Amino acid sequence: MLALRKTGPQPGLNFEEVAAPGAPGPDEALIQVEAAGICGSDLHVYDWDASYAFMRARLPVTIGHEFCGRVVALGSQAAGLAEGDLVAVVPTASCMKCQLCAAGQPQRCLSRSTLGLTRDGAFARQVRVPALSCIRLAGHTLPALAAMLEPLAVGDNAALVGEIGFGDTVVVLGPGTIGQAIARAARWRGAERVVVVGKGDGPRLRTALAVGATHAIDLEQGLTLPQALEQALGAGQADVVVEATGHPSSIADGLSILRKDGVLVSAGIHARPASLDMTALVRNRQQIRGAHASRRASWLSIARRIAEQPEDVLPMVSAELPLAEGLQGFAQCRARAVSKIILRPGD
């Protein structure tokens, strides 16, 4: 079968013909992939950023970790699923045996692997996954939206980490898929004003507005972030700032518009260290919190939302392409001309 793979420790991806995964193990499911999204992490893998060097020992590997598909075979010990079920798949595979897993925190498992990064993922026709990682979906759920369950859950987790609530003013730095998902989650959680900020990101900022942001700021117009926020809101501070750019300088920028006692959530993956004025942070009693991956509760709640209210997130889907055109999809994402590109391995 055709697969889009990271074959070596250098920039780029390659198509290869690989063997089908074969029969699932006792606690696994074999999934026929219906839709898989290109993620910002996949772009880092393409570029071979230093923050993804941990993959080196696992290469070559089929990438793709945002996906949905149909169960086509189940292992003898796989419970709660049936052949034909539409499922989304949590990409982190945990041991489910250690103390952290037993405490309901499999995302913290020290033995976890990640589909599409450290084991073969979904940019292929079929993928074998742990059955416990499958989230069963309503049969009428649109596959393109089901494939976005992972970034939507990541956005919801960032909103939870920031304790975003009713009436808050929230600024999201970065209008990519995760930034859009954070904006949507913030509105679902009652934020009154949600400002999404980009630079030269017109198409993605328009998408952010379409999925719930109340304001969009393009710093390409020459204003500083505090000036632009003052112009947009008539006030220059936020209750919560969520950084989703992956640019280290955005941390200091975010702190400059955060109120005293406010929370900055860092959800971006950075290729370089950040430089901060810690004295100002301490005197302003501000907090920086890291948000990474997601919680199963977010997956379950968002699965219901996308089945019942698809219009809330449908604008995030820019295009659906056959897998064979995947490199063109990567080019569009790298040009920041689109929000989410969905690849369809069966087309």
UniProtKB/TrEMBL annotation:
Start and end residues of each Alcohol dehydrogenase-like C-terminal domain: 178-305
Keywords, in A-Z order: Metal-binding, Oxidoreductase, Zinc
Record's keyword annotation contains rRNA processing: no
EC number: 1.1.1.103
Entries under InterPro entries matching the protein: ADH-like_C, ADH-like_N, ADH_Zn_CS, GroES-like_sf, NAD(P)-bd_dom_sf, Zn_alcohol_dh
Required cofactor names: Zn(2+)
Entry keyword Metal-binding: yes
TM segment ranges: none
Pfam families registered for this protein in UniProt: ADH_N, ADH_zinc_N
Domain Alcohol dehydrogenase-like N-terminal: 25-137
Top-level taxon: Bacteria
Gene Ontology MF terms: L-threonine 3-dehydrogenase activity; zinc ion binding
Family per record: Belongs to the zinc-containing alcohol dehydrogenase family.
Name listed for the protein in its UniProt record: L-threonine 3-dehydrogenase
Originating species: Bordetella pseudohinzii
Native organism taxonomy: Bacteria, Pseudomonadati, Pseudomonadota, Betaproteobacteria, Burkholderiales
